[in-house]
Each structure stands twice: as structure tokens, then as C-alpha cells.
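User: Predict the complex.
Assistant: Input components as received:
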Amino acid sequence: MHPNDPVTAALAGYRAAVLAKDVDAFCALYDPDIHVFDMWGRWQHQGLAAWRDMASGWFGSVGDERVVVEFSEVHSSVSGDLAFGHAFVRFSAEAADGTELRSLNNRLTLVLKRQAEGWKIAHEHTSAPIDHASCKAMLQR
Amino acid sequence: MHPNDPVTAALAGYRAAVLAKDVDAFCALYDPDIHVFDMWGRWQHQGLAAWRDMASGWFGSVGDERVVVEFSEVHSSVSGDLAFGHAFVRFSAEAADGTELRSLNNRLTLVLKRQAEGWKIAHEHTSAPIDHASCKAMLQR
């Protein structure tokens, strides 16, 4: 994947913003009309103000830990003013001394639109598969 | 949404193929290289042969019931040879006499690519949100 690929660039920006707990940098990755099917607790988030609230709450809850994001099996396609990608994601929480405290995996789909100011994430879908018998999320791949 | 929109057409084809339990009609909607993050039990499905196995197993398990699929809050965008859409989905099981037996909701993202033979679904992501406290899927919206 070329480093100028819009999906690769968005994933790198996501990783950096989460590591830095930087709400502004995080929100700069997204279209004002962002639509998200997020893995946790709500059926959807619509618009950047709602998504900023999610990020503020998330980053504010991290305390002096850090959240390290790793992507694998990244796929990307671009045509015209649309790009899409999918990947597996691993989130790990690190203590201030770098010790890994816990981790989980999920699945990510991104759709980006090319705007005047560059590529922005217009739609994001994260999930974990559901075990049919227990109806519980499978959080370790 | 225009009825010739590729996302709208794919959703209509999906609904019809599931109602008819028609594996060939279902598979005709998909790209040979289809990649799916499906809601149930597995981290991913890759390629139409694997996806056909899923459909055969699903349709074969339905017996003399029917599965009725309804989409709501459908969004669609097209640029170049890529299209994407997202929607809420309601699956209901009907007895042979038309009585609704049970239902569940989920969330769907589709990415389509324009091929020589028309638009085909290249990536599909379905999920339900996960309740943070119980780690259980929320199956009713």
C-alpha cells in the first residue's frame, strides 16, 4: 500500500491522534457529516459534534494510560472521489511505564470522500463478531 | 434515492434472494473477491465460495419459514467505479401462514464496485452494537 493512499493516511492519523489523546487531531480526520456505526452501546453517531463528544469521553477516560492502535490485513481501494478500506484493529492499553495492561480486537470499515481540504472519513463501521450461542462479542481474534 | 442507484438495487436484490432462499441469485449480487465482516461467529469471510457456503447453510436452515428483510435509513453515494451505502436492517422470520415468529435488527455497510457485468458488492460489514457492561449484542433497535 502506498503511503499516500488515503486509507493508509487516515489509519496513521487515527493511530497518532488516539495515542496523543488529541481530540482536535482526531476530529480533523472526519467529514462534518460523519456517520458512524460504532461497536459500543449505540446504534449510530451522526455528525462531527456527536463524534467529538465520543472522542472527548474516550480520551478523557484513559487517565495516565495510553491507547496503542495497530492495524493488520489492511485493504484499500480508490475511485473518483471515494475511497474505502477495511482492516483488523488491535487496541491495547499501556501503563505510563509502557506495560501492556489489556487489549481487544475489532474490525474496521472506512469510507472516505475527497473534499477541498483533502480526504475525510465520511463513514466508519466498527464491530466484533457475535457468538451465536451466548450473544456475546468475540473480543480476541 | 433513485431506483437505478446501485446500492438501492443491491438491497432490493438481497431482499428478494433471501425471501426466495435462492443461493444463486444471492451470490450473483457479489464480486468473486467479496470480503465480508459478518455479524455472526467469524472474523471474516473471503471469496465467493466461502460466502456461498454461508448462504447455503443459512437458507438451508430456514425450513418452511421465510426470512423477510427490511431496510431503513438507507444512505448511498457513488463516485467513479465505487459506490457505498449504509442502512439499518430488520430480519423477521415468518411462518408458512405469514405469522411473524421473531425478528432482529442490525447495521449494514456495503461497498460496490462497477464491473463489466454491472455493480457487484465487494465488501459487506454487518453488526449490532455491543452493550459495554454485559458484552452482549443489542439485537433490537
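The interface with chain A takes residues 35, 37-44, 75, 77-84, 86, 88, 107, 109, 111, 113, 122-123, 125-132, 134-139, 141 of chain B (CB under 8 Å).
Let me know if you want any component modeled separately.
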